[in-house]
Amino acid sequence: MASAERRTQDQSTRPPSRARTASPQLTESPKQLQWITVGTSFSVGLAAGFTGYFKFRERSFYLQQTADSIEEEYDAVNLKVGRYKSSADDEAALLEFTERVETLKNDQRKRQQQLDQPTETPEG
């Protein structure tokens, strides 16, 4: 029990990870460079946070778009409108519907893979 209390106390007195990363550099640098280091470190952390947030948001947008498209296809096959109007029987319409849904899902997987790939940076 005492070790758990000590661990929580240690965690509450530790500086945030960005400050911890910059602190060794601050003790050995001139005053002006100290603030530049702190600002740069904070900016990198902030940029990484925004990148993660917007990547998550973009992923959510594409998932919703795919779900809406599948629902649209489902309604069309049930009402026999659009591309399913010319289907002779229900089995042919369901076959075409299944092919269309699988195409939509494959497109979504490709978009997901593109989002999961790291951004290319120019080497120099």
Report on this structure.
The protein is an all-alpha fold and about 120 residues long. It has a domain at about 55-115. It contains four helices and no strands. The chain has helices at about 1-15, 15-25, 30-80, 90-115. The longest helix is centred in the middle third of the chain and has 49 residues, at about 30-80. It starts with a helix and ends in an 8-residue tail after the last helix.
What count of helical segments does DSSP give? 4
Order of helices and strands: HHHH
SS-derived structural category: mainly alpha
* Proportion of helical residues: over 70%
Beta-strand share of residues: under 5%
Instruction: Tell me, rounded to a whole number, the average pLDDT.
Output: 79
State the end-to-end distance.
53 Å
Describe the biggest sheet? none
The count of strands amounts to: 0
What gross morphology would you assign? Answer: rod-shaped
- Integer-rounded radius of gyration: 27 Å
- Low-confidence spans: 4-12
Please name the defining characteristics of this protein.
rod-shaped, mainly alpha, 124 residues
Could you give a short description of this structure?
The protein is 80% helix and 0% strand. It has helices at 2-13, 17-27, 31-79, 90-116.
What's the SSE blueprint?
Layout: H1 2-13, H2 17-27, H3 31-79, H4 90-116
Helix pairs in contact: 2-3, 3-4
